[in-house]
Amino acid sequence: MKPEIPLSFEFFPPKTVDGIANLRETRSQLAQYKPEFFSVTFGAGGSTTDRTRETVFEIQDEGYQAAPHISCISSSKEEIRELLLAYQAKGIKRLVALRGDVPSGEVSVGDFKHANELVNFIRQETGDWFHLEVAAYPEFHPEALSAAKDMANFKRKVEAGADSAITQYFYNADAYFSFVDNCLADAITIPIVPGIMPIYNYTQLARFSGVCGAEIPRWLRLRLEAYADDMPSLRALGVDVVSELCERLLTCGVPSLHFYTLNQAGTISKIVGNLNIK
Ligand code: FAD
C-alpha cells in the first residue's frame, strides 16, 4: 500500500488581477493532493504585507489551512503584533517565522535582528496559538560564519519555540541527511521538512541558487546548461531529477515534503504523480 505523506505548497502573493486568477487555478489543481497547508511568502521589509494577508485570507476562506510567512527584518514589534492579532482573529494557526534578507544601504533593521528573536516574540505574545515553522539550511546559510555556528543559530530558533522547520531547497540529498543527523546529535528533534524546488528555468534557478547558497551539483548544472534553449527537455530532465530526489527522501522517512511552487501547478503535478504516495 502507498504511504500517506503530508505535502505543503508555497506561493508568493500575486500582484495583478491575472496573477490572482492564475494562483486560484494553481491552488485548485494542487488541492487534489489534500495538502496540510498552503504557505504564502512575505516580501522583505514588509513590502508585501497587505498582499500576503489578502492571499492568506482568501485561502483560509476557501477552507484550506493557510500559513503566512512573516519576515521580521525592518519591522517594529508593533507592526508584528498587529499582524499576529489579525492572523489570530482570522483563525490562522500556522506561521513561517523568518528574518528575511537584510536590506542593503542605510535601512533600519528594526526591532529584530534574527529569526530566533521573532520566534521568541511570537511565543511571548501569543503563547502556543501558532504552530511555528522556521527555515533550515542543509547547505548552510550564505552568511554563516561556519557550519557549527549556523547549526548553533538554528538551535536558538528551536529553543525559542519553533515546532518544525522547512529547509532551503537542495539537489544533494546527502546534505539534508547530514543536517538531520547533526540535529539529532545536538538533541534537535523537531521535524525538518525538505523544501523542494522544481526546475522551471535554468537561468533563474542558477541566479537564485547563487544568492541563497543552494548548490546545483556539477553533473546537474552541466546537463541543464545543455538544454538552455530547449525548455521541454530541460523541464523533463527537471521532473526526473526532482522526482528521484523526492523518492530518495521518502524512502528514508522524511516527515513531509514542502514544494516551492512559484505559483505553478503543472511541473509539481508531474513530480507528485511520479511518487509512490497517496
Ligand atoms: P536567521 O535564522 O536569523 O539566520 C540568518 C543568518 O544569521 C544565518 O547565517 C544564521 O547563522 C545567523 N544567525 C541566526 N541567529 C543568530 C543570532 N542570534 N546571532 C548571530 N547570528 C545569527 N525570505 C523572505 O523575505 N520572505 C519569505 O517569505 C521567505 N520564506 C522563506 C521560506 C523558507 C522555507 C526558507 C528556507 C527561506 C525563506 N526566506 C524568505 C529567505 C530567508 O528570509 C533568508 O534566507 C534570510 O536571509 C534568513 O532568514 P532566517 O529566518 O533563516 O534567518
Features of the shown structure:
single chain; 278 residues; alpha/beta; TIM Barrel; 10 helices; 8 strands; binds flavin-adenine dinucleotide
Q: Cα distance, first to last residue?
A: 9 Å
Secondary-structure element order, N to C? EHEHEHEHEHEHEHHHEH
Quick check: average pLDDT? Answer: 95
Count of helices?
A: 10
Kindly summarize this structure in a few lines:
By secondary structure, the chain is an alpha/beta fold. It has ten helices and eight strands.
Structure report:
This protein is α/β, with parallel strands linked by helices. The chain has a single domain (7-274), classed as Alpha-Beta Barrel (TIM Barrel), CATH 3.20.20.220. The protein contains ten helices and eight strands. The protein has helices at 17-30, 49-61, 77-89, 115-126, 147-160, 173-185, 202-212, 218-226, 231-251, 266-274; strands spanning 7-11, 37-40, 66-71, 94-98, 131-136, 164-169, 192-196, 257-260. Strands 1-2-3-4-5-6-7-8 form an eight-stranded parallel barrel, surrounded by five helices. Helix 4 packs parallel to helix 5 and helix 9 (231-251) crosses helix 10. It starts with 6 loop residues before the first strand and ends with a helix. Flavin-adenine dinucleotide binds at residues 41-42, 44, 69, 71, 96, 98-101, 114-116, 135, 141, 143-144, 149-150, 153, 156-157, 166, 168, 195.
Question: Which helices and strands appear, and what pairs or packs with what?
Answer:
Layout (H helix, E strand, L loop, with lengths): L6 E5 L5 H14 L6 E4 L8 H13 L4 E6 L5 H13 L4 E5 L16 H12 L4 E6 L10 H14 L3 E6 L3 H13 L6 E5 L5 H11 L5 H9 L4 H21 L5 E4 L5 H9 L4
Parallel strand pairs: 1-2, 1-8, 2-3, 3-4, 4-5, 5-6, 6-7, 7-8
Helix pairs in contact: 4-5, 9-10
